[in-house]
What does this fold into?
Amino acid sequence: MSDLERARAIVERARRPVVFTGAGVSAESGIPTFRDALTGLWEQYDPEQLATEAGFRADPELVWRWYASRRERVAQAQPNPAHLAIAALGRRRAGLLVVTQNVDGLHQRAGSTDVVELHGSILRVRCLEGCAGPVEGWASDPRVPPRCPRCGAPLRPDVVWFGELLPEHSLQRAQQAAIDCDLMVVVGTSALVYPAAELPFTAVRAGADVICVNPEPTAIDEIATVALHGKAGELLARVLGG
Ligand code: APR
It folds into this structure.
């Protein structure tokens, strides 16, 4: 039996599958990953300058322009066959949870209805000084960050920057899902950023199977029941069936 057939059989018999994704699932939609050689964002830009609160306070316009260009790219992108295969599995398996590190909203655009965004979303903003609540209808001038309607402070992308805690409710949901699942399908993550990267290990400790899909080997290969080396857009529909 080939690895693909083994993975397919594991998906078929799973009762409580969870899908965990990273930037690689959006690569075929034209959204760069973070760490891929040459093309990765962190190969081209300084994460300290662009993805920390200190960096934003030091130069809000620079950071805002960068996120505005990423938002523009996401707006022009389309969900790819990997996103669509996950959404289709969600229609066949009631209660399927998608846990993502991605901030692009492409899972939701593909039709996935229960998505935990561990690292937030670049489609939302919030007050830099922590005024409570989401901000709707903000002026999306790509040059300057809009101002908080409550306190006048700059609004920042509602994403998790380096050195920041993940949204508590989202992390708890993801950790509980990792404990409760009998299969975790791990797609397109380098598994280098914690606490998100711990989830597949939590699932295995709880007795679940892990299938990982990535053109490159990662630490997840060590614990995977099946590790498939290839592109998500080319493999996932065959793994998830439907
Ligand atoms: N299909 C599947 N996987 C792919 C594809 C593809 N077409 N193309 C690339 N990959 C893999 C790469 O081999 C790599 O292992 O996707 C992975 C992307 O890894 P990263 O760029 O490190 O992205 P990710 O794991 O999501 O990063 C985690 O780091 O920078 C922070 O907050 C950011 O959420 C992000 C977190």
Remarks:
- DSSP finds eleven helices and eight strands in the chain.
- The first strand starts at residue 17 and ends at 21.
